What does this fold into?
Amino acid sequence: MVRLGLFNAGLGLMSVLTLGLLNRVMVTELNIPLGVTGILLALSQITAPAKIWLGQLSDTRPWRGLYRTGYVWMGTLLFTGLVFGIVQTMWHLGDAVAAAGQWSWTGETLGWTALLGLAFTAYGLAVSMASTPFVALLVDISEEDNRSQVVSIVWSMLLVGVIAGGITTAVMLKRVGIEAELGLIQDSINRLFALVPLVAIALTLGATWGVEKRYSRFKSRIDEAQAPGSRPLREDQIGLKQALGILTATPQTTLFFVCLLLVTLGLFMQDAVLENYGAEVFQMPMAATTQLNAFYGVGNLVGLGGAGFWLVPRFGKLRTVRLGCVLVATTLGLLISAGFHPSPDLLKGMVLAFGIASGITTNGALSLMLDFTAVETAGTFIGAWGLAQSLARGLATGLGGQLHSLGMWALGDLRWAYGLVFAVEAGLMLGAIGLLSRLNVQTFQTKTRMAIAQMLQGDLD
It folds into this structure.
Protein backbone atom coordinates (compact mmCIF):
# COMPACT_ATOMS: atom_id res chain seq x y z
CA MET A 1 0.00 0.00 0.00
CA VAL A 2 2.79 2.41 0.83
CA ARG A 3 4.47 1.60 -2.49
CA LEU A 4 1.21 2.28 -4.37
CA GLY A 5 1.04 5.60 -2.58
CA LEU A 6 4.23 6.72 -4.35
CA PHE A 7 2.08 7.50 -7.40
CA ASN A 8 -0.03 9.89 -5.34
CA ALA A 9 3.16 11.39 -3.91
CA GLY A 10 4.16 12.30 -7.46
CA LEU A 11 0.77 13.89 -8.08
CA GLY A 12 1.18 15.86 -4.85
CA LEU A 13 4.53 17.20 -6.01
CA MET A 14 3.03 18.29 -9.32
CA SER A 15 -0.03 19.91 -7.72
CA VAL A 16 2.14 22.21 -5.60
CA LEU A 17 3.79 23.45 -8.78
CA THR A 18 0.69 23.85 -10.94
CA LEU A 19 -2.14 24.97 -8.64
CA GLY A 20 0.10 26.71 -6.11
CA LEU A 21 3.28 28.13 -7.57
CA LEU A 22 2.14 28.87 -11.15
CA ASN A 23 -0.99 30.55 -9.79
CA ARG A 24 1.12 32.81 -7.57
CA VAL A 25 3.62 33.65 -10.34
CA MET A 26 0.96 34.49 -12.94
CA VAL A 27 -0.93 36.83 -10.60
CA THR A 28 1.78 38.46 -8.51
CA GLU A 29 4.85 38.43 -10.77
CA LEU A 30 3.35 38.54 -14.29
CA ASN A 31 0.33 40.78 -13.48
CA ILE A 32 -2.21 38.43 -15.04
CA PRO A 33 -5.62 39.05 -13.38
CA LEU A 34 -6.65 36.48 -10.77
CA GLY A 35 -9.92 35.85 -12.62
CA VAL A 36 -8.07 34.99 -15.85
CA THR A 37 -5.58 32.81 -13.98
CA GLY A 38 -8.39 30.97 -12.24
CA ILE A 39 -10.07 30.20 -15.56
CA LEU A 40 -6.79 28.98 -17.09
CA LEU A 41 -6.15 26.63 -14.18
CA ALA A 42 -9.77 25.45 -14.27
CA LEU A 43 -9.32 24.38 -17.91
CA SER A 44 -7.21 21.47 -16.66
CA GLN A 45 -10.53 20.03 -15.44
CA ILE A 46 -12.58 20.69 -18.58
CA THR A 47 -11.83 17.22 -19.96
CA ALA A 48 -13.48 15.64 -16.91
CA PRO A 49 -16.22 13.82 -18.93
CA ALA A 50 -13.44 11.79 -20.56
CA LYS A 51 -12.83 10.15 -17.16
CA ILE A 52 -15.85 7.87 -17.66
CA TRP A 53 -14.56 6.82 -21.08
CA LEU A 54 -11.02 6.32 -19.78
CA GLY A 55 -12.30 4.29 -16.83
CA GLN A 56 -14.46 2.18 -19.12
CA LEU A 57 -11.44 1.58 -21.39
CA SER A 58 -9.42 0.37 -18.43
CA ASP A 59 -12.28 -2.04 -17.59
CA THR A 60 -12.40 -3.53 -21.10
CA ARG A 61 -9.16 -2.90 -23.00
CA PRO A 62 -6.16 -4.42 -21.24
CA TRP A 63 -2.59 -3.74 -22.34
CA ARG A 64 -0.44 -6.88 -22.31
CA GLY A 65 -2.87 -8.45 -19.85
CA LEU A 66 -2.93 -5.44 -17.52
CA TYR A 67 -6.13 -3.42 -17.25
CA ARG A 68 -4.85 -0.42 -15.28
CA THR A 69 -1.05 -0.10 -15.33
CA GLY A 70 -0.48 0.78 -18.99
CA TYR A 71 -2.89 3.74 -18.80
CA VAL A 72 -1.20 4.97 -15.61
CA TRP A 73 2.23 4.93 -17.27
CA MET A 74 1.09 6.57 -20.50
CA GLY A 75 -0.79 9.35 -18.70
CA THR A 76 2.17 10.07 -16.42
CA LEU A 77 4.58 10.44 -19.33
CA LEU A 78 2.18 12.84 -21.04
CA PHE A 79 1.42 15.17 -18.12
CA THR A 80 5.03 15.38 -16.97
CA GLY A 81 6.08 16.32 -20.49
CA LEU A 82 3.35 18.91 -20.91
CA VAL A 83 4.01 20.83 -17.71
CA PHE A 84 7.39 22.23 -18.83
CA GLY A 85 5.75 23.54 -22.01
CA ILE A 86 3.08 25.20 -19.88
CA VAL A 87 5.76 27.13 -18.00
CA GLN A 88 7.43 28.38 -21.18
CA THR A 89 4.08 29.49 -22.60
CA MET A 90 3.38 31.32 -19.33
CA TRP A 91 6.60 33.34 -19.70
CA HIS A 92 5.60 34.38 -23.22
CA LEU A 93 2.20 35.52 -21.94
CA GLY A 94 3.96 37.51 -19.20
CA ASP A 95 6.17 39.17 -21.83
CA ALA A 96 3.07 40.14 -23.82
CA VAL A 97 1.47 41.71 -20.72
CA ALA A 98 4.70 43.60 -19.93
CA ALA A 99 4.95 44.89 -23.49
CA ALA A 100 1.39 46.24 -23.29
CA GLY A 101 2.09 47.85 -19.89
CA GLN A 102 -0.98 46.23 -18.34
CA TRP A 103 -3.40 43.39 -18.94
CA SER A 104 -5.39 43.86 -22.14
CA TRP A 105 -7.03 41.60 -24.68
CA THR A 106 -4.62 42.50 -27.49
CA GLY A 107 -3.85 40.10 -30.32
CA GLU A 108 -0.59 38.84 -28.79
CA THR A 109 -2.01 38.51 -25.29
CA LEU A 110 -5.10 36.75 -26.60
CA GLY A 111 -3.01 34.30 -28.65
CA TRP A 112 -0.71 33.30 -25.79
CA THR A 113 -3.69 33.04 -23.41
CA ALA A 114 -5.47 30.68 -25.81
CA LEU A 115 -2.33 28.56 -26.23
CA LEU A 116 -1.83 28.39 -22.46
CA GLY A 117 -5.46 27.37 -22.01
CA LEU A 118 -5.04 24.59 -24.59
CA ALA A 119 -1.91 23.36 -22.79
CA PHE A 120 -3.71 23.25 -19.43
CA THR A 121 -6.58 21.34 -21.07
CA ALA A 122 -4.21 18.72 -22.49
CA TYR A 123 -2.47 18.48 -19.11
CA GLY A 124 -5.79 17.74 -17.40
CA LEU A 125 -6.62 14.99 -19.90
CA ALA A 126 -3.24 13.36 -19.32
CA VAL A 127 -3.67 13.46 -15.53
CA SER A 128 -7.10 11.83 -15.95
CA MET A 129 -5.58 9.10 -18.10
CA ALA A 130 -3.20 8.24 -15.26
CA SER A 131 -5.29 8.84 -12.16
CA THR A 132 -8.64 7.23 -13.09
CA PRO A 133 -7.24 3.72 -13.74
CA PHE A 134 -4.99 4.11 -10.69
CA VAL A 135 -7.95 4.63 -8.33
CA ALA A 136 -9.76 1.74 -10.04
CA LEU A 137 -6.70 -0.38 -9.21
CA LEU A 138 -7.23 0.47 -5.53
CA VAL A 139 -10.73 -1.00 -5.78
CA ASP A 140 -9.33 -4.09 -7.52
CA ILE A 141 -6.92 -4.89 -4.68
CA SER A 142 -9.13 -3.99 -1.68
CA GLU A 143 -12.29 -5.05 0.16
CA GLU A 144 -15.05 -2.97 1.75
CA ASP A 145 -13.81 -3.45 5.31
CA ASN A 146 -10.27 -2.15 4.69
CA ARG A 147 -10.88 0.72 2.30
CA SER A 148 -10.66 3.47 4.89
CA GLN A 149 -7.15 2.20 5.68
CA VAL A 150 -6.31 2.05 1.97
CA VAL A 151 -7.45 5.66 1.62
CA SER A 152 -5.45 6.69 4.69
CA ILE A 153 -2.22 5.17 3.43
CA VAL A 154 -2.44 6.05 -0.26
CA TRP A 155 -3.81 9.57 0.19
CA SER A 156 -1.41 10.22 3.03
CA MET A 157 1.30 9.69 0.45
CA LEU A 158 -0.39 12.36 -1.67
CA LEU A 159 0.05 14.72 1.24
CA VAL A 160 3.63 13.58 1.71
CA GLY A 161 4.15 14.68 -1.89
CA VAL A 162 2.49 18.03 -1.20
CA ILE A 163 4.67 18.55 1.87
CA ALA A 164 7.81 17.51 -0.01
CA GLY A 165 6.82 19.76 -2.89
CA GLY A 166 6.30 22.72 -0.59
CA ILE A 167 9.65 22.18 1.12
CA THR A 168 11.53 21.52 -2.14
CA THR A 169 10.02 24.60 -3.77
CA ALA A 170 10.84 26.76 -0.76
CA VAL A 171 14.46 25.56 -0.78
CA MET A 172 14.95 26.00 -4.53
CA LEU A 173 13.32 29.45 -4.46
CA LYS A 174 15.06 30.57 -1.27
CA ARG A 175 17.10 33.21 -3.08
CA VAL A 176 13.97 34.60 -4.77
CA GLY A 177 12.72 37.43 -2.54
CA ILE A 178 9.41 39.27 -2.80
CA GLU A 179 11.09 42.00 -4.93
CA ALA A 180 13.27 39.64 -7.02
CA GLU A 181 13.94 40.36 -10.70
CA LEU A 182 11.87 38.41 -13.21
CA GLY A 183 14.96 36.85 -14.81
CA LEU A 184 16.00 35.25 -11.51
CA ILE A 185 12.45 33.98 -10.98
CA GLN A 186 12.38 32.44 -14.46
CA ASP A 187 15.70 30.64 -14.05
CA SER A 188 14.73 29.20 -10.66
CA ILE A 189 11.28 28.04 -11.78
CA ASN A 190 12.58 26.52 -15.03
CA ARG A 191 15.04 24.39 -13.04
CA LEU A 192 12.26 23.33 -10.67
CA PHE A 193 9.97 22.29 -13.52
CA ALA A 194 12.76 20.34 -15.19
CA LEU A 195 13.54 18.32 -12.04
CA VAL A 196 10.19 17.52 -10.40
CA PRO A 197 8.50 15.87 -13.45
CA LEU A 198 11.41 13.39 -13.64
CA VAL A 199 10.87 12.56 -9.97
CA ALA A 200 7.13 12.03 -10.64
CA ILE A 201 7.92 9.54 -13.44
CA ALA A 202 10.27 7.57 -11.19
CA LEU A 203 7.68 7.48 -8.39
CA THR A 204 4.99 6.19 -10.77
CA LEU A 205 7.16 3.33 -11.98
CA GLY A 206 8.16 2.45 -8.42
CA ALA A 207 4.52 2.51 -7.30
CA THR A 208 2.93 0.31 -9.95
CA TRP A 209 5.56 -2.08 -11.27
CA GLY A 210 4.24 -5.63 -10.81
CA VAL A 211 1.39 -4.69 -8.45
CA GLU A 212 -1.58 -5.36 -10.74
CA LYS A 213 -0.31 -8.75 -11.92
CA ARG A 214 0.25 -9.97 -8.37
CA TYR A 215 -2.58 -8.41 -6.33
CA SER A 216 -5.50 -7.41 -8.57
CA ARG A 217 -8.72 -9.42 -8.23
CA PHE A 218 -10.55 -7.54 -11.00
CA LYS A 219 -10.71 -10.43 -13.49
CA SER A 220 -11.80 -12.98 -10.88
CA ARG A 221 -14.55 -10.64 -9.68
CA ILE A 222 -15.90 -10.33 -13.22
CA ASP A 223 -16.04 -14.11 -13.47
CA GLU A 224 -17.80 -14.39 -10.09
CA ALA A 225 -20.37 -11.76 -11.09
CA GLN A 226 -21.69 -13.77 -14.03
CA ALA A 227 -25.07 -15.35 -13.48
CA PRO A 228 -25.34 -19.14 -13.85
CA GLY A 229 -25.97 -20.03 -17.47
CA SER A 230 -25.02 -16.61 -18.84
CA ARG A 231 -22.65 -16.35 -21.78
CA PRO A 232 -18.95 -15.76 -20.96
CA LEU A 233 -17.94 -12.14 -20.54
CA ARG A 234 -16.02 -10.73 -23.51
CA GLU A 235 -13.64 -7.82 -23.15
CA ASP A 236 -15.85 -5.69 -25.40
CA GLN A 237 -19.13 -6.68 -23.73
CA ILE A 238 -19.33 -3.64 -21.45
CA GLY A 239 -19.22 -0.82 -23.97
CA LEU A 240 -19.67 2.85 -23.13
CA LYS A 241 -23.45 2.66 -23.68
CA GLN A 242 -23.78 -0.31 -21.32
CA ALA A 243 -21.51 1.35 -18.79
CA LEU A 244 -23.68 4.48 -18.75
CA GLY A 245 -26.72 2.25 -18.28
CA ILE A 246 -25.14 0.71 -15.18
CA LEU A 247 -24.29 4.17 -13.83
CA THR A 248 -27.93 5.26 -14.02
CA ALA A 249 -29.38 2.05 -12.57
CA THR A 250 -30.14 3.63 -9.16
CA PRO A 251 -30.90 7.21 -7.97
CA GLN A 252 -28.26 6.67 -5.28
CA THR A 253 -25.61 7.18 -7.97
CA THR A 254 -26.93 10.65 -8.82
CA LEU A 255 -27.31 11.55 -5.16
CA PHE A 256 -23.74 10.58 -4.34
CA PHE A 257 -22.49 12.41 -7.46
CA VAL A 258 -24.08 15.67 -6.26
CA CYS A 259 -22.85 15.11 -2.70
CA LEU A 260 -19.29 14.53 -3.92
CA LEU A 261 -19.58 17.66 -6.05
CA LEU A 262 -20.54 19.84 -3.07
CA VAL A 263 -17.92 18.40 -0.74
CA THR A 264 -15.15 18.83 -3.32
CA LEU A 265 -16.22 22.41 -4.04
CA GLY A 266 -16.16 23.16 -0.33
CA LEU A 267 -12.70 21.69 0.09
CA PHE A 268 -10.89 23.25 -2.86
CA MET A 269 -12.34 26.66 -3.69
CA GLN A 270 -9.60 28.31 -1.64
CA ASP A 271 -6.87 26.67 -3.79
CA ALA A 272 -6.86 29.53 -6.27
CA VAL A 273 -6.65 32.28 -3.63
CA LEU A 274 -4.86 30.95 -0.54
CA GLU A 275 -1.29 31.81 -1.58
CA ASN A 276 -2.40 35.20 -2.85
CA TYR A 277 -4.23 35.70 0.48
CA GLY A 278 -0.88 35.21 2.21
CA ALA A 279 0.91 37.51 -0.25
CA GLU A 280 -1.58 40.40 -0.32
CA VAL A 281 -3.10 40.43 3.16
CA PHE A 282 -0.21 38.99 5.21
CA GLN A 283 2.68 40.38 3.07
CA MET A 284 4.43 37.00 2.90
CA PRO A 285 7.23 36.37 0.30
CA MET A 286 6.97 33.67 -2.36
CA ALA A 287 8.86 30.99 -0.42
CA ALA A 288 6.65 31.57 2.65
CA THR A 289 3.34 31.37 0.77
CA THR A 290 4.50 28.19 -0.94
CA GLN A 291 5.21 26.73 2.52
CA LEU A 292 1.50 27.11 3.33
CA ASN A 293 1.10 23.95 1.22
CA ALA A 294 3.32 22.13 3.71
CA PHE A 295 1.23 23.26 6.71
CA TYR A 296 -1.96 22.24 4.91
CA GLY A 297 -0.33 18.92 3.99
CA VAL A 298 0.76 18.12 7.56
CA GLY A 299 -2.75 18.84 8.85
CA ASN A 300 -4.34 16.79 6.09
CA LEU A 301 -1.99 13.93 6.85
CA VAL A 302 -3.07 13.95 10.51
CA GLY A 303 -6.74 14.11 9.51
CA LEU A 304 -6.45 11.30 6.96
CA GLY A 305 -4.66 8.97 9.36
CA GLY A 306 -6.92 9.73 12.30
CA ALA A 307 -10.07 9.22 10.25
CA GLY A 308 -8.91 6.02 8.54
CA PHE A 309 -7.60 4.21 11.59
CA TRP A 310 -9.79 5.64 14.36
CA LEU A 311 -12.87 7.66 13.33
CA VAL A 312 -14.22 5.53 10.46
CA PRO A 313 -13.81 2.15 12.24
CA ARG A 314 -15.62 3.53 15.31
CA PHE A 315 -18.27 5.87 13.87
CA GLY A 316 -18.68 4.78 10.26
CA LYS A 317 -18.01 6.57 7.00
CA LEU A 318 -21.14 8.71 6.85
CA ARG A 319 -20.74 10.11 10.37
CA THR A 320 -17.08 10.81 9.69
CA VAL A 321 -17.93 12.81 6.57
CA ARG A 322 -20.57 14.81 8.47
CA LEU A 323 -18.08 15.62 11.24
CA GLY A 324 -15.50 16.64 8.67
CA CYS A 325 -17.93 18.98 6.91
CA VAL A 326 -18.71 20.78 10.20
CA LEU A 327 -15.02 21.12 11.04
CA VAL A 328 -14.16 22.45 7.58
CA ALA A 329 -16.88 25.11 7.81
CA THR A 330 -15.59 26.12 11.26
CA THR A 331 -11.95 26.43 10.18
CA LEU A 332 -12.94 28.46 7.11
CA GLY A 333 -14.56 30.93 9.49
CA LEU A 334 -11.28 31.08 11.40
CA LEU A 335 -9.40 31.79 8.16
CA ILE A 336 -11.68 34.79 7.59
CA SER A 337 -11.04 36.12 11.09
CA ALA A 338 -7.26 35.67 10.67
CA GLY A 339 -7.30 38.32 7.94
CA PHE A 340 -8.25 41.00 10.46
CA HIS A 341 -5.20 40.14 12.60
CA PRO A 342 -2.61 39.64 9.85
CA SER A 343 0.07 37.56 11.51
CA PRO A 344 1.83 35.01 9.23
CA ASP A 345 2.13 32.59 12.17
CA LEU A 346 -1.61 32.84 12.82
CA LEU A 347 -2.34 32.11 9.15
CA LYS A 348 -0.09 29.06 9.25
CA GLY A 349 -1.96 27.77 12.31
CA MET A 350 -5.34 28.28 10.64
CA VAL A 351 -4.14 26.51 7.48
CA LEU A 352 -2.92 23.61 9.63
CA ALA A 353 -6.35 23.34 11.32
CA PHE A 354 -8.10 23.54 7.94
CA GLY A 355 -5.84 20.73 6.72
CA ILE A 356 -6.84 18.46 9.63
CA ALA A 357 -10.55 19.07 8.97
CA SER A 358 -10.04 18.50 5.25
CA GLY A 359 -8.22 15.22 5.92
CA ILE A 360 -11.10 13.88 8.00
CA THR A 361 -13.61 14.85 5.33
CA THR A 362 -11.47 13.49 2.50
CA ASN A 363 -10.99 10.08 4.11
CA GLY A 364 -14.69 9.63 4.80
CA ALA A 365 -15.70 10.83 1.32
CA LEU A 366 -13.13 8.72 -0.55
CA SER A 367 -13.93 5.62 1.51
CA LEU A 368 -17.58 6.12 0.59
CA MET A 369 -16.55 6.64 -3.04
CA LEU A 370 -14.84 3.25 -3.15
CA ASP A 371 -17.94 1.67 -1.58
CA PHE A 372 -20.16 3.39 -4.16
CA THR A 373 -18.28 1.48 -6.86
CA ALA A 374 -19.30 -1.82 -8.41
CA VAL A 375 -16.13 -3.91 -8.35
CA GLU A 376 -17.01 -5.57 -11.67
CA THR A 377 -16.95 -2.19 -13.45
CA ALA A 378 -14.62 -0.31 -11.12
CA GLY A 379 -13.00 1.86 -13.79
CA THR A 380 -16.35 3.13 -15.06
CA PHE A 381 -17.59 4.14 -11.61
CA ILE A 382 -14.27 5.68 -10.64
CA GLY A 383 -14.49 7.65 -13.87
CA ALA A 384 -17.92 8.94 -12.84
CA TRP A 385 -16.73 9.94 -9.37
CA GLY A 386 -13.62 11.44 -10.95
CA LEU A 387 -15.92 13.46 -13.20
CA ALA A 388 -17.74 14.83 -10.15
CA GLN A 389 -14.46 15.73 -8.47
CA SER A 390 -12.96 17.28 -11.60
CA LEU A 391 -16.06 19.34 -12.30
CA ALA A 392 -15.94 20.56 -8.72
CA ARG A 393 -12.20 21.25 -8.84
CA GLY A 394 -12.61 23.19 -12.08
CA LEU A 395 -15.56 25.14 -10.72
CA ALA A 396 -13.73 25.71 -7.44
CA THR A 397 -10.64 27.11 -9.15
CA GLY A 398 -12.65 29.34 -11.46
CA LEU A 399 -15.22 30.44 -8.87
CA GLY A 400 -12.53 31.22 -6.30
CA GLY A 401 -11.01 33.87 -8.54
CA GLN A 402 -14.38 35.22 -9.69
CA LEU A 403 -15.74 35.49 -6.14
CA HIS A 404 -12.61 37.36 -5.11
CA SER A 405 -13.09 39.81 -8.01
CA LEU A 406 -16.77 40.20 -7.07
CA GLY A 407 -15.79 40.86 -3.47
CA MET A 408 -13.30 43.54 -4.48
CA TRP A 409 -15.91 45.22 -6.71
CA ALA A 410 -18.72 45.06 -4.15
CA LEU A 411 -16.80 45.48 -0.89
CA GLY A 412 -13.59 47.24 -1.91
CA ASP A 413 -11.51 45.52 0.78
CA LEU A 414 -8.96 42.73 0.29
CA ARG A 415 -9.84 40.98 3.54
CA TRP A 416 -13.56 40.86 2.80
CA ALA A 417 -12.93 39.85 -0.82
CA TYR A 418 -10.98 36.77 0.29
CA GLY A 419 -13.45 36.26 3.15
CA LEU A 420 -16.29 35.98 0.62
CA VAL A 421 -14.54 33.00 -1.00
CA PHE A 422 -14.10 31.24 2.35
CA ALA A 423 -17.69 31.99 3.41
CA VAL A 424 -19.18 30.47 0.24
CA GLU A 425 -17.04 27.36 0.80
CA ALA A 426 -18.37 27.00 4.35
CA GLY A 427 -21.95 27.25 3.08
CA LEU A 428 -21.36 24.48 0.55
CA MET A 429 -20.00 22.17 3.23
CA LEU A 430 -23.05 22.72 5.42
CA GLY A 431 -25.31 22.08 2.42
CA ALA A 432 -23.62 18.74 1.75
CA ILE A 433 -24.54 17.50 5.25
CA GLY A 434 -28.23 17.38 4.31
CA LEU A 435 -27.57 15.11 1.33
CA LEU A 436 -25.43 12.67 3.31
CA SER A 437 -28.42 11.46 5.35
CA ARG A 438 -30.08 10.17 2.16
CA LEU A 439 -27.20 7.93 1.05
CA ASN A 440 -27.47 4.14 1.39
CA VAL A 441 -24.54 1.99 0.24
CA GLN A 442 -26.49 -1.28 0.49
CA THR A 443 -29.28 -0.01 -1.80
CA PHE A 444 -26.72 1.18 -4.32
CA GLN A 445 -24.81 -2.10 -4.39
CA THR A 446 -27.93 -4.27 -4.65
CA LYS A 447 -29.48 -2.36 -7.56
CA THR A 448 -26.19 -1.92 -9.39
CA ARG A 449 -25.37 -5.63 -9.24
CA MET A 450 -28.84 -6.42 -10.58
CA ALA A 451 -28.17 -4.07 -13.49
CA ILE A 452 -24.79 -5.69 -14.20
CA ALA A 453 -26.32 -9.16 -14.08
CA GLN A 454 -29.01 -8.09 -16.57
CA MET A 455 -26.40 -6.57 -18.85
CA LEU A 456 -24.31 -9.73 -18.79
CA GLN A 457 -27.41 -11.69 -19.82
CA GLY A 458 -28.04 -9.25 -22.66
CA ASP A 459 -31.29 -7.89 -21.18
CA LEU A 460 -30.30 -4.32 -20.23
CA ASP A 461 -32.08 -1.68 -22.31
Notes: Residues 229-236 have pLDDT under 50 and may be disordered. DSSP finds 18 helices and no strands in the chain. The first helix runs from residue 5 to 29.
